[in-house]
Amino acid sequence: MKRMRNHLIGVDHGDMVMFSDFEHDGVMWAGDGARQVRAYVEFSESFRAPPVVMATLSMFDMSNGSNSRADVQAEDVTSDGFAIVFRTWGDSKIARVRVAWQAIGELRQADEWDLY
Q1: What's this model's pTM, rounded to 2 decimal places?
Q2: CA-to-CA distance for 84 and 77, rounded, in angstroms?
């Protein structure tokens, strides 16, 4: 449980196309085994401390000729941003992925200063 200690709660969100590999036989479409794609997201405004971030698939286009395996996570969360990481493995053939995300956390108060 994340406890927030002020009334300034910020919610930021977005939607990001991670890749579209079927167009050029990219590794997610033509490869096999363990594969991953990372994309960095910068928040529209810095949070007071690292927020809680949720990432979820908002579009998943895959081949019907292989198993569909997907893992999407928010990693390396800071006050300024985070990394979306999409992973697949085995014989999965992933054509395109879009990820939606939402961050909720404390914002700085207008009179809050970092002196050192």
Answers
A1: 0.87
A2: 10
